[in-house]
Amino acid sequence: MIVNSAASSVTARTRVVIQKALSADHDVTLAETTRRGHATRLAQGAVSEGVDVVVVLGGDGTLNEAANGLAGSSTALAPLPGGSTNVFARTLGLSDDPIEATASLLDALAAGSIKRIGLGDANGRFFLFHCGIGFDAAVVEQVEKRGSLKRYAGHPLFMYAAADTWLRHYDRSSPAFTVVHQSEVDGGTTDETDEIDASFALFLNTNPYTYLGTRPFDVAPDATLDRPLTVITIPHLKLLPLTRIATAALRDGTTLRTNSAVDYRPDISAVSVKAHRPFPYQLDGDYLGDVDELEIRHSPDILDLVLPIERDA
Description:
By secondary structure, the chain is an alpha+beta fold. Helix content is 32%, strand content 35%. The protein has two domains: 2-112, Rossmann fold, CATH 3.40.50.10330; 126-299, Tumour Suppressor Smad4 (Sandwich), CATH 2.60.200. Strands 5, 6, 7, 8, 9, 10, 13, 14, 15 and 16 form a ten-stranded antiparallel β-sheet that branches. The protein has a four-stranded parallel β-sheet with strand order 2-1-3-4, sandwiched between helices. It has a two-stranded antiparallel ribbon with strand order 11-12. The longest helix has 15 residues, at 155-169.
């Protein structure tokens, strides 16, 4: 059981209650993260010791780190919500309350509800639910600069950061990068390419993209754990088209498939991103800096995941 005690929803009481509940029927070893990247090392250690399941109590960033330590192994990942948004855990159908989610986890473990899933991969680092580049990542960077407020402000902080980034912290004057799609024919690729200049792009392994309070922000209805990635490219950051995109996402996201301001492509196995100038990127809500190039792929059947039995897998 990997715990990030600094995560927004993690308290000493919550940690003790969950550990006690899991220990009733399982041998449990507790490990707490102390620095960025620590969860990956702890997960790798669990694999080498032959651990069956790694339970992660923390936010999406801690979950991402653990997934990177487990990918390619037979040790399963079991998420518990401990952060401010908990996108992946909620996408799986878990309660946002970590103790209630533990009850679902115990039922899933008792039923052996474990499925092999695919992950996204950006320059060799895996992501569970999405990779965001350009404007999206610049917003995450601004949120992380105000990390001390994240535990208390949560979603209002993200909304403020989005507006502030659009106004002051991101160059909207010209596209920052080019998304390069290689044509696919009968499961293979050709030398033909389709290039789109853009300021904002999302590569989604699941949907929704995030949550605003209790409301899902649906941008990619085609993105599921059973399919390759859905790629959404937004060439321009004009206010009116962005507002319409956000409004559609708060409904059900289906109209984004035909929105003229969006290039929407499901079932993409690989794509390249080339910079016009260094651009920021984030994975599963963690800002990872600026790069000149990204190679993004879907890696099928690479992680065992414990799924709530209420979920139709």
